[in-house]
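Entries read sequence, tokenised fold; example below:

***
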Amino acid sequence: MRHGRLPRHVTTSLQILALAAVYVGAAKLGLPQELSPGGISPLWPPAGFALAALLLFGLRMWPGIAIGAFCANVTAGPSVPAVLAITVGDTLAPICAYHLLHRAGFHVAAQRLRDVLALIFLGALAGMVVSATIGSSALVLTGRLPASGFWPRWSVWWADDARGVLVVTPLLLVLRSVRLPRGVTALHWVEAWALAGATIAAALSVNISAFLFMVFPCLIWAAFRFQLAGAAPCQLAISTLVMIALANRTGAFAHREPVLNVITFQAFNLATALTALLLSVIIAERNRTQQEIRQVCGQLAELVAELGPVDTTHRRPPPRKSGETPPTDDTNGAGPEGAR
């Protein structure tokens, strides 16, 4: 140990245990909201935490995912074989998503359009197929689920894990590099607080009305003005508050079948996630392009200034037309008559 720093293996062990604790805590937030057919949470935050941990700290964190998944599922009711199989699926899914993103050249800053598209299609939609397939198969093989219910359970399981990635992972990646901005005017802070208040008000309105679309102006506002740093927290707040309306069956989810409510919530979450992520990264790329253009223009202006004024006294004469008499040099004292 040097300079009071812990050995690497001790630090890694503490990180693994911390990830396991966070995983269990996030699972407890999801498990009480078991509103989907068959008792699956409509949003599974641990999937987002697991993938973010692998992206930020590497594959050495996978034991924390396994420990957390086992502790979270062992109290949920399935038999021990089913719990072990579900644990394997919940561990392999973020690992597969990590490898897919790594092969695609994903950057954890998620400031490029290709990064966001990779996170959506490879990290969320493709990677979470593993956990849904293994978990649903385990329930069927252990008798907890009839064979006819495999695909309904699989679709809900897959959508829940994918939404956990789309909602939680971008926020954690943003928090990794977030810094208190410098030189921000008071008006900018007022705008940020106004955006937060409008987002909460729009999301809470879902509890008393059926107008789910009221939250989209807030997402667009956040993406345009604050990019992913503003859109990701807004998306998480909206998803959480709308899930409360789903749990209480109020507003947009009142007097409707539970299955229809879950499908509506899934479609709503997917639409808000795509809007927040894609629009924010497109605006960020546009801003970077404009900044690069300004830098190039400034460099060109400096280069022109260094060259100095252009001397026009020795310019080459324009080309003569066919049949035109060449000009004479009057400096030699010969005019038009002297040339004959």
In short: The chain has two domains: 7-170, 187-307.
